[in-house]
Amino acid sequence: MREHKPQSGVRGLGRVGRLALASAAVLTLALAPQAAFAQVGTTNLVMSTPQEPPNWDYTVGTATAINGVLFLNVIEPLLETQQDGSLKPLLASYEVTPDGLTYTFKLVKAKFHDGTDFDADDVLYSFEQYKKSPRPEISKTFDAVSNIEKVDASTIKVTLSRPSQAFLAGMSGLAGMMLPEGGLDNLAKAPVGTGPFSFGEWKPGIEVDVKRFEDYHGDKPYFENVRIRFIGDEIAAVNALMAGDIDLINVLVGDGKERADAVKADPKLAVLTTPSNQVNYIALDAKNPKFADIRVRQAIAHAINREDIAIGAYSGFAEPACLFVNPANLPWNSDYCPYPYDPEKAQTLLTEAGVGNLDVELKYYNISDGPAMSELLTDELGAVGINVKGASRELAAYLDEVLGSTPNFEMTTLTGPQTVDSFLCPGWFASACVPEFDEAWNKADAAVTADEATALRKQAVNAFADAAWVIPTVAWMDVTYANAKLAGWKPYRSQAEADLRGLHWAE
Prior knowledge:
By secondary structure, the protein is α+β, with helices and mostly antiparallel strands. Helices cover 28% and strands 23% of the residues. The chain has 14 helices and 19 strands. The strands form four sheets. Strands 1, 8, 9, 10, 11, 12, 13, 14, 15, 16 and 17 form an eleven-stranded mixed β-sheet that branches. The protein has a four-stranded antiparallel β-sheet with strand order 4-5-7-6, with helices on one face. Helix 13 (435-445) runs antiparallel to helix 14 (450-467). The model is unreliable at 1-33 (pLDDT under 50).
């Protein structure tokens, strides 16, 4: 976790920023009654987040805010990813045979928030639900699993048909999250887990409360009550933080980052950055004939100025990215960039493809970085002869239209914790199959040694970038503003979580 000085020269946010400022006063007044709840020294904490998910069912929904609230706080996985990428037991310890084909998990003694004991039947139930998830980053975790066996009430044996790097990693992610038997039925509205906080009252459009779980199997957190407010207007959220109405803003994603200098100048506040597992990318609909000629896709990729996007949409709290490697510190990342910013090359490719005055609809969500990305892409693609028509959507409508069961878009820009294997054929919502990518990635998953897996994954992500159906732009740095007296903020994230477990007031 380190402090960060944002770059100047922000572009593309003027209209968005003015709209936010215009509404800030009204929203700050609305936040005023929370002051009695958010007070330094109490065991109450108020956190804001710019997103509210349509519901809390992470087996279907991809909204980052779901992970921010639930992961590690309310619902726990079997294993936990550490800062160095290693795994440690959380709800289970494990042993694996030398051939990498048999895993034995020993479960810890824990209770769910509904009072029932956590046992092997819950693991069997959870795995069965995840195998059916439409989210490939969850369901594909089990591709190599040939058998799941309950040995006894606290022991599970998993047999694989081949070694799988993805399976073990998945046990520390969404595919390893443990639900009680039948827990999927209420997951959308009232999630139940074994975490240190139980899910409390959810007031859609306003806030959700979580409460310390007194029967938690591990160390109990400091805070008894945490209120998470949904404040899409980040300027209003910053004003509320400065006024002491809230204690922490989790992951600023839009124009709130422009206030970093003002926050740093206030001795009562702190600006914290952590490496992120959020990546922004542009996706093209592979079913649309406009993009069938790879030269058109290459032209779009060459027209994108990633440096400008890092500054204009993220106030400098981002790094340009040509490869879909998330998080960016994974060993298969590299400097490979097949389509660097080159508007002249983009125009040449469009001419060679016989395309002039290409009209494209860009669908985007109307919060956080969506509006800024729309403005930037309209300018940059317009400069090479691609006419972008922006189509703004409320988040719920966007998720349904773009990421729903029948994706309906031409081009979109999206930021999220997705990993590249989400786009293995049939290519998730982009419907783009890249055989060279699939082949190398699948070989990597079955590799026995880490070095072999790394080399194959490097080959896979390069092939995925070459195809230019999904075009990464930047990798985020997560930006958090907090009361300077708040201590214990974890210096890394593994699933975009806002880990509340270690937070406390400094002495």
